[in-house]
Amino acid sequence: MRIRQVDVSMLDKPRGAAKPRALSPKAMARQKQQNQLVQMLKKITDPKAVFEVRLGRDDKAPTMRQRIMRAAEEAKKDVVVRKSESGWLVGMATPERRSKRGRRKKKA
Predict the structure, then answer these.
(1) DSSP run (H or E) holding 83
(2) Is 40 helix (H, G, I), strand (E, B) or coil?
(3) Which segments in the chain show pLDDT lower than 50?
(4) Cβ proximity of 77 and 41 under 8 Å
(5) Handedness of CA 54, 58, 59, 60 (dihedral sign)
(6) How far is residue 97's CA from residue 82's CA, in Å, rounded to a whole number?
């Protein structure tokens, strides 16, 4: 270890802005997938519009469901997500489709 005394100007000089890091290929793929999900959710305008999100061989069901819910929040849509044979079914949330589990929401 070396210790040396330096001029105070070294401490007070402004630092340069950090360079933005490039996204990794996996991060770019996730971002592209997120944008696709948001676009799909924007097409859900009535209860009859239902989409199926099929899982790829590398996709995990819980992760994909979480991404769908995050995209729904970003698109400001209230959706329900149900399991299908090959992935997830996504549709507009209606009183009949909502989950009956958990605490009831208080009516204001």
Answers:
(1) strand 79-84
(2) helix
(3) none
(4) yes
(5) positive
(6) 10
